[in-house]
Write a structure and sequence with these properties.
heterodimer, A: 139 residues, mainly alpha, 71% helix, 0% strand, elongated, B: 405 residues, alpha/beta, Rossmann fold, nine-stranded mixed sheet, three-stranded mixed sheet
Chain lengths: 139, 405
């Protein structure tokens, strides 16, 4: 027998895929409505109105999205701050990547592996000198 | 991600790769104008200074000096400082470097003597260098630029070889001594010097190193970077210009140095600085002598070799024990009803500098400087007064409100 699920657990869990763009906020809202109706049918709402429950869960979800968005932005800034001196010193790109993943891990992995790589790629791209004009459109 | 174009361009030290949106052909041809934007400052790479604000990666520094001022010794001392990451000449070293000397003037033995002397003076051994110091082959000249077979075009015989060698050894600083020996072009021709300087600039950019060119001066006074010998295009091509000159007689008098000793002191001025603020104060160096331990018959003593060391002029203000005692004596005047003056026409009696010379034991020139500073700061105020013989005179009064606390 599994432990009883928290009433608002799903609202918190949906924050992560929403923030990462894997599902839309409207889809997450729909999942919360379905879950609340199932809970009402099972008699788990202890007399509270289902519409109030959905409203509260949606608020929890948005709080979670906002918090995680802030965490991710903060981690991106921390990664950039860490890697820019390394890029200026022309350290090999794999050591820059390792440092960036280290910062992400220290913050509790708010970013995916691919997202960290993209942060590093972008920083490196803008640090590279632009090609001479004649060569830029050669291909 | 080994095949990522951005990462591979970065690791090879290349340029920014094309993006898909960049594939549109430019309608204006190779010289099409484009918009210039103020971009995010964090994405701008920092200037890669190596040695104070004297050497910067990918740029050329020109060191102009008359013969015998210690130009080669200074370059060698800079090279040692950079390779050992020690502030030998009080200039900040941003990162430890690999330095190559393109020595075209002195025989190898002389370089060995100077290097040994510097090592003795600064307590540096061969282990401290960690194979970071390089020198060009002794019997091979350099031709970075010379006239082509037709006599008009310019060819660059050694440029590619130098760039390849700089890259192979990961050289950070390339010291060329002297510049004049590296080309066979007309030195007084501006177009020719532009080409020779551009060749060294390409070495700096493509080799990703800093190039310092030692150059001689023309006849006449050495007062600015324009004193460099030959066409002016050379000094204009360099981003940083350093001027090394010996101490003048006036400077020796003002700094309290015996006139006979002044040639041992050289000053380094930021004569041209396109990339950083020019330092207001000159850096001073002293050429001291080190005796090597190489006495061989018939020579009783080892060679005496000059080494460059940093030297700070004595600051007379530091040796001033009690400024107020001096000001009290100036305020009291030479006798009742008389005031001291800033004029040196009566040095025996009324010149205020006499007080300073007596109290501090400094030179009259230094005393005059102190009086001048006090007058500029308002501590001493020139006033006209009638003396005991009812003649109008000019004298100095002390403003007590501005006395040093």
């Amino acid at each position: 027998m599994t432990a009883p699920r928290s009433l608002y657990g799903l609202a918190r869990e949906l924050g992560r895929p929403v923030v990462r763009g894997q599902i839309r906020l409207a889809h997450a809202d729909a999942a919360l409505i379905v879950e609340t109706l199932q809970q009402e049918r099972a008699g788990q709402l202890q007399g509270r109105h289902a519409a109030d429950e959905v409203s509260y869960k949606r608020w929890v979800l948005r709080q979670e999205v906002e918090r995680q968005s802030f965490d991710r932005t903060r981690t991106i800034v921390a990664i950039e701050r860490q890697i820019k001196p390394m890029i200026a010193a022309r350290r090999p790109h794999n050591s820059v990547l390792a440092e960036a993943h280290g910062v992400n891990g220290a913050d509790g992995f708010p970013l995916d592996e691919d997202e960290v790589t993209n942060v590093v790629r972008t920083a490196i791209f803008w640090a590279l000198p632009p090609a001479p004009w004649g060569r830029r459109h050669a291909g | 991600m080994p095949d990522d174009p951005i990462f591979s361009a970065y690791d090879k030290g290349g340029f920014r790769p094309k993006l898909a949106v960049d594939n549109e052909p430019s309608p204006g041809g190779p010289f099409a104008l484009r918009n210039l934007h103020i971009i995010n400052q964090h994405s701008i790479p920092h200037r890669q200074w190596l040695y104070g604000t004297d050497l910067i990666r990918a740029f050329v520094t020109l060191l102009v000096a008359p013969g015998g001022t210690g130009k080669s010794s200074l370059i060698l001392a800079m090279a040692l400082a950079l390779t050992t990451n020690r502030k030998l000449l009080r200039t900040h070293i941003h990162q430890r470097c690999r330095v190559a000397l393109l020595n075209l003037e002195d025989p190898q033995e002389e370089i060995d003597r100077r290097l040994s002397a510097l090592g003795m003076h600064y307590n540096i051994t061969d282990e401290d260098l960690e194979d970071r110091l390089f020198i060009s082959p002794p019997d091979r000249g350099v031709r970075i630029a010379e006239a082509g077979p037709d006599g008009f075009s310019v060819i660059y015989p050694d440029e590619d070889a130098i760039i390849a060698e700089v890259r192979r050894n990961q050289i950070d600083v390339l010291a060329v001594d002297p510049f004049a020996e590296t080309h066979a072009l007309e030195e007084n021709s501006n177009p020719a010097m532009v080409k020779a300087a551009a060749a060294w600039r390409r070495v700096a950019r493509q080799g990703n190193c800093s190039v310092i060119l030692a150059h001689h001066v023309r006849k006449g006074p050495v007062d600015s970077i324009d004193a460099a010998r030959g066409a002016k295009a050379l000094s204009d091509s360099a981003r940083i210009g350093l001027l090394l000159s010996t101490m003048t007689e006036a400077e020796a008098e003002s700094l309290g140095i015996e006139a006979d000793d002044r040639l041992q002191y050289v000053r380094l001025d930021d004569a041209k600085a396109n990339l950083a603020k020019r330092a207001g104060r000159a850096r001073w160096f002293r050429l001291s002598e080190v005796t090597l331990d190489n006495a061989q018959p018939p020579y009783q003593r080892g060679d005496e070799v000059g080494v460059v060391e940093s030297w700070e002029p004595l600051n007379v203000w530091n040796s001033m024990v009690d400024a107020n005692a001096i000001l009290d004596r100036i305020a009291a005047g030479p006798e009742p009803g008389e005031l001291y003056t800033d004029s040196r026409r009566h040095p025996a009696t009324r010149w205020a500098g006499n007080i300073i010379v007596q109290e501090m034991g400094c030179s009259p020139e230094q005393a005059a400087n102190i009086i001048h500073t006090w007058m500029r700061n308002g501590v001493l105020i020139p006033t006209a007064y009638g003396n005991n013989n009812r003649k109008e005179r000019r004298g100095l009064k002390v403003d007590d409100a501005r006395r040093p606390s």
